[in-house]
């Protein structure tokens, strides 16, 4: 049975950058970033599964690799950037490789080093899915954040529009 979708007015207020609380500006900004990230991840999971047929964590690996102009990234660097244990990443990379989305190869001159790169299939899938994924991010941010938070996030996401929130 599907759970009822939360309405923005049912959610606790997002931390404000305006101050007035006990936290310094840096911690308020961090809390805003965490709240925004959580809102996006929650809605993005289903779209990622539908459009790319991968898990959210596998999607994050694909995104990191997509930002590499040539070649790929070493497994240790991916684990470091995502804050994931190397053993968990090894499993995710194996799943992506099995799906034909990444390749693995040894790094020249380093017996233990492994570099991961996107395949053409993954590049094509990401191109096809990028518009609905970007739309999901924008809608999620607008839906779960108040006017002050949306204004702050527009520096990072210029297309973010403020959704009218019922009083």
From TrEMBL:
Positions of the HTH marR-type domain: 26-162
Pfam family, one: MarR
GO BP terms: response to stress
InterPro entries: ArsR-like_HTH, HTH_MarR-typ, MarR/SlyA-like, WH-like_DNA-bd_sf, WH_DNA-bd_sf
A molecular function (GO) term: DNA binding
Protein name: DNA-binding MarR family transcriptional regulator
Keywords (A to Z) from UniProt: DNA-binding
